[in-house]
Amino acid sequence: MLEIYEELLASPVIKVECQAFDYELHFYLENGKHYKFFHDPVSDESALITDITGNLDDLRGQLIIAELVDNYDEMDSYGDIFEWTFYKFATAKGYVTVRWEGHGTTWYSTSVELVEVIDNK
Description:
Layout: E1 2-4, H1 6-9, E2 13-19, E3 24-29, E4 34-38, E5 45-53, E6 65-75, E7 81-91, E8 94-104, E9 113-116
Antiparallel strand pairs: 1-6, 2-3, 3-4, 4-9, 5-8, 6-7, 7-8
């Protein structure tokens, strides 16, 4: 599956942070919007960032690529569902690939979501 994140291509990025012990990736845009990638657990499953290839600082500026490539429903040797998701980002400065892994013993999804964070000031 390939999904392109138009929201992140709409405005230059001013900051990218990995937060909450590798369970969240935050994008702060020049237009004032703030987006986060995260997994919202439902049961005995989890998803976290297991690898970042490249430098997150290279993503400051106008993104030209913001897409995901993933798989679902592979079983590991213990009978747990093993899923992975790669988010690929690029600016004129460089490329960054963020790898998420999800594990669980149930049919619940371990996918990662992109949501806009609304600041209630």
